[in-house]
Amino acid sequence: MSRSAHPAGPRHADVLPEGHYTAPAEDLNALDPKVWAHTVGRDADGVVTVGGIAVTQLAEEYGTPAYVLDEADFRDRARAWRTAFGNDADVFYAGKAFLSRAVVRWLHEEGLNLDVCSGGELATALSAGMPAERIAFHGNNKSPEEIERAVRAGVGRIVLDSFQEIVRVAHIAQSLGTRQRVQIRITVGVEAHTHEFIATAHEDQKFGIPLAGGQAAEAVRRALQLDGLEVIGIHSHIGSQIFDMSGFEVAAHRVVGLLKDIRDEHGVELPEIDLGGGLGIAYTSDDDPREPHEIAKALTEIVTRECEAARLATPRISVEPGRAIVGPTAFTLYEVGTVKPLEGLRTYVSVDGGMSDNIRTALYDAEYSVALASRTSDAEPMLVRVVGKHCESGDIVVKDAFLPGDLAPGDLIAVPATGAYCRSMASNYNHVLRPPVVAVRDGAARVIVRRETEDDLLRLDVG
Ligand code: LLP
């Protein structure tokens, strides 16, 4: 899913005979700042530290596996997005990447807005004090109860995803005696160069209303007639883990084309355009993500240019980065349990977590990096596959990587760039308990989401 081949070997390594793997040129003890959170380094003993705390200390205090999140880095990245887009645009952090009450407070303090896509995310946001007008509510199948809750709370926008939902939200808002601000999510027919399951702008999928065949125009036509709705703009999200800006360029062109058609037909210039999230991050050293200021500049220029050509006033732009903010800020800390060399193949390194804390490798063929974290080593590199403890052979965390040949049970290893879509997609498969999220900052650590316990599991099991 990362667009890179693994830095240390061929991408389709499985089908190649042994010997085609070349040991990595880089020092295995080095920590590439591209894939690690900002404050990560090694102390004088070679132990990985984050926010000034050694991972050995974190493991002792909080156990493993654990997601370790660099709060300063999270705030830096959130602020960088906010600053890059300035006051004429809004940044909505996509809560699906990872949401907790601490995160909501950091976002609030750093001046970001929040995109939620379920009643649960809405409840988390509201309970941590995010002002409702700074929340956008998404989803292709919001329940009437969820819609009512969002309208009652006074969310700043609901993003409408179907013809039925246009009527449903209008009806609920009207019955509550209010007018709900809404955007209409359209699919612009762009092929985003990413994994099929996370591409969202082509037409044959569940999200949005197709621009093709005049359907989006018809959706706007209907929404504009309904008293319960105030249509504030058009929304487009083309997919995730995207590096190439050309998809956004085509999307902006088509969205602005629709705004122009709306102006021509209804005499209304919609004031907002949301270009969604989806900006890629570095999972391995081969990935080269863009900086927020470059992205902001590119998107603003594209929209301004398109609007000038269409003789429209430039609408207020909003974006919804999730992964690009939280992804690089956390790593997963595991303890090595067994090390199993398979003659002529590779060495399987089993850790105390797996697909229940990171489903992305199994689901999207995602690539990750890994480092020995509790010490350094000068041993020869060995080709490894980092696997979990689940009863499933697809339970892979890192498919192909090199670790020092003296790796042993009890060593701590860390997988970087697991801040996005790992805790938020975690499961209890095999009744494995979901790890905590430990936030570190300026030499202090605290649990922001606690580890699940067997009591938690048994409490749900009421049979
Ligand atoms: N806005 C909308 C409407 C979205 O649907 C999404 C992601 C985002 C923003 C944030 O996208 P981001 O900037 O985080 O890429 N589980 C997959 C990703 C699914 C993304 C779903 N929607 C993964 O692990 O890669």
From TrEMBL:
Lyase in keyword set: yes
Boundaries of every Orn/DAP/Arg decarboxylase 2 C-terminal domain copy: 331-419
Residue ranges of every copy of the Orn/DAP/Arg decarboxylase 2 N-terminal domain listed in the record: 72-327
Catalysed reactions, as listed in the record: meso-2,6-diaminopimelate + H(+) = L-lysine + CO2
Recorded superkingdom: Bacteria
HAMAP family linked: LysA
Subunit field text: Homodimer.
Protein name: Diaminopimelate decarboxylase
Organism from which the protein derives: Streptomyces coelicoflavus
Gene name linked to the record: lysA
